[in-house]
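Fold this sequence, please.
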Amino acid sequence: MDEPTVAMDVEARRGFWDVVSRLRERSKTIVFATHYLNEADEMADEIVVLAQGKKVASGSPQDIKSLVHRRFVRFKLDEDDVVDDLVAEISTWPSVLEVTTRDKELTVVATDSDLVVRQLFLRSVNFVGLEVKGVDLEEAFFTLTEGHMGVEVA
């Protein structure tokens, strides 16, 4: 099936995926192409990522996401911490690729999120709402196909 849920409303999409789930339970193979990567992440047992007609990755959704060695650590600072000073410091920590801020919320992109969290505790950073997550399938797709899509940026 090619883009099977395009133009479906929420109820129709849910019904479609219920039917697909029942077919999977009966050991039926379903092949579909989609740009709705959240659906592929949820429903697919195996994914093949193509770029310019060539396979760049294949495996379970988790296998595909694990190819991208990047994790996100997000938290909000307590009022006492100075954002700019902390951002400058965190940027020097091992494995940190990028630090972005929005008000008092920081997002740290790193190859080793455990190391970042340990450093936050060692530094006694007063934070709330700590969240650690890996890349989603869309981020993995963009990373894996980067340079293969033939898109020119002026």
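The chain has a mean pLDDT of 89. The helical segments are 10-25, 37-43, 61-66, 83-90, 113-122, 137-145.
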